[in-house]
Amino acid sequence: MVEIADVFRRFAADYLDAHGAAMPPSHRRAIQDILDCRTAALGGQVWRCDTCGTDTFSFHSCGNRSCPKCHTAQTQEWLGHRQAEMLPVPYFHIVVTVPAELRAVLRAHQRDGYAMLMQATAAAIMELARDPRFVGGIVAVLAVLHTWDQQLNLHPHVHCLVSGGGVSEDGTTWHPARRAFLLPIKALARLVRGKFRALLRQRCPDLFVADLVWRKDWIAHVTAWGRGEQAVLDYLARYVFRIAITNARIVGLKDAGVTFGYRDRRTGHRRSCRLSGEEFMRRFLQHVLPRGFHKVRYFGLWHPAHRKHAAQARQMLQLQAPPPTGPLPETVVPPEPAGAPATPMMELRICPHCHLGRMVLIRTFAPGQAMGP
Prior knowledge:
The protein starts with a helix and ends in an 8-residue tail after the last strand. The chain has 9 helices and 13 strands. It is an alpha+beta fold. A hairpin with a 6-residue loop joins strand 6 and strand 7. It folds into 2 domains: 4-64 and 337-365, no CATH class; 72-244 and 287-320, no CATH class. Helix 1 packs across helix 8 (277-285). It has a 5-stranded antiparallel β-sheet with strand order 8-3-5-4-12, sandwiched between helices.
């Protein structure tokens, strides 16, 4: 299977020669980490089967959030933490997309622009939710930033998980949302646009954006998910740790360029996209976020300032809910995409060769040490 790392090995050197002087440090770091991930460059362990005696090398992962080989363990940990915070209520999935005319602005001001987009989206959701005509309380909002479309073009949008109800300002009363309605979509899109514009003027006063741009409609979607906190979490985990493209989507690599598959959203059909190596590198790296930028943020009841109210609401709802029947749900990590790399050997116990013996740790080796196969 062709991997992103293989593409980088073929084209990264030329791309760095052409654009390295203007490249942000986060892009250089992503290239190096993806090239080194699960290789001797990062060190690892040697494991030996106690039955057939076969030695197997297990290399360390890079942990870079843009790497397609990492984050399985991180997803498991994140799901465990979020499960304890989930409220026993229906949930809604909200997606807000920036119009094309503002994409260049966000690309040029990634750290501030993306943060303002997430802040404006969450603030608009919470403001409308406080209206007694809709919810009448403080809702819980988890926002996840994505910046790509299926063909790796710049397409900034925010996915939000929103509780189907909110707690009163004093934290004593729970106000449930209607079963299939949370907020008016058009009002939400206009409010996000207005809040984003105000934040942009405040933080970037010298930035000029034509008035015509602010008359463009923003796109918002609100989908009722119903009950099932675990199903909601498992689905959302794929958004939280998703990267622009996975290894499984790379279908061809030649000197002329890269071919990868994507789904046409208008028709639902699978198609292929062919790009030169330089263009593929450019498209991939534009989705590498600045170092330290938080692409997952918590607002409303899930914000640390409202943890007390969230705990009170959770207790109230649990007391009101009927006792559960059947086995308790288990935390399940979303399945790896087809063709994903195997789990690191540290987590394996059965020999992958004879499938009978158990793997025993023989030695470890430091990053860059010549101990690999």
